[in-house]
Amino acid sequence: MHYRTREVVRVVTGWSYDCDVLVIGGGIVGLSTAYALTRAAPGTRVAVLEKEPGPARHQTGRNSGVIHSGVYYRPGSLKARYAVSGAAEMVKFCAEYGIPHAVTGKLIVATTREELPRLHALVQRGRENGIAVRELCGAQIAEYEPEVDGLAAIHVGTTGICDFTAVARRLAQASQAAGAEIRYGARVIRVDRRPDRGVAVLTAGGDVVRGRVLVNCAGLHCDEIARRTGDEPGARIVPFRGEYYELARPELVRGLVYPVPDPAFPFLGVHLTRGIDGGVHVGPNAVPALAREGYDWRTVRPRELGATLAWPGSWQLARRHWRYGTGELHRSLSRQAFTRAVRRLLPAVREDDLVPAAAGVRAQAVLRDGTLADDFLIQETARTVHVLNAPSPAATASLPIGREVARRALAALETAQR
Length: 418
Hints:
Helix content is 30%, strand content 26%.
């Protein structure tokens, strides 16, 4: 897609509406929004435009499949509230629709004395968020994970795993059954937003779709879509690639094992995740991607990379956290270095145990001053709702996020129809 700053292209001169609410983005958040709209207001005409040939092709379908408990997030934040409630809802949704899932629990393991205060702080944070947390000494870790080494750990029983791609497909099917229209292969290239009338978008295929209200759930491209409407989001998506390996000896890990995260970053560090298929994913690290959908070092899109480098926040972020970033880059380029990071938790792992697996890209919003947006970010303007920061744990929290976005969209629709 080719964008110019704050460009609004007039694509129609006359108005008739194809739908009441037009959703851009067919990932799990966009589809959850459509699902919530069809249930909260039956009869509301909903359309979803997704540029890929099917749902969940990016963040939703390329994560580790973890249903997060909410233990990490600041009490009272949207992430904390929606992850805690969303985890329980996600398990119920999967059970209702026969989607593969399991409530496994997980360990968060401190491997150095410097990490112990942060581990204890997580215990307190978890309890403030209403999550049951069990503290373990080093010897007790073996009850859960015999091959894992650490000084202390906490066990969080509400963490689980599921197939988020299957969840997205089921949300799409349920929305369509309730009357929503979902168009795949519909890449949005232009937007005409008129506060007194509505929104019209032009797709790459030449179709014009008109709606009374627009919902922007475009994930890796959400800031660009916001600017297409004429809104300035105040942040830019800076893509971070998460690189994974598959463990050749999955018997080394029974469940989910995480390090103690660095509170300065939204990334959880290299962890071990036994997936719903029985395989064990190792990762991810977090390195700058050279394209919004840059799933390897070979994928470079100069326009997108240039936009990232032109954003002042990117340089502020790099200046502030260059040491952390250097370590991540080293682990990306050296399997030996990556293996050393894994051995902190799993001493028995060998370099040849790590088999390259599919990578993902995190759509991380970065503010102008270089601050990483810590919480989900939802912004409203005339006839528009923008979801501008919805990385992990957005898949876990997708059902309550969808309800909240739907609530705001319906309020905008009511205002527009007065």
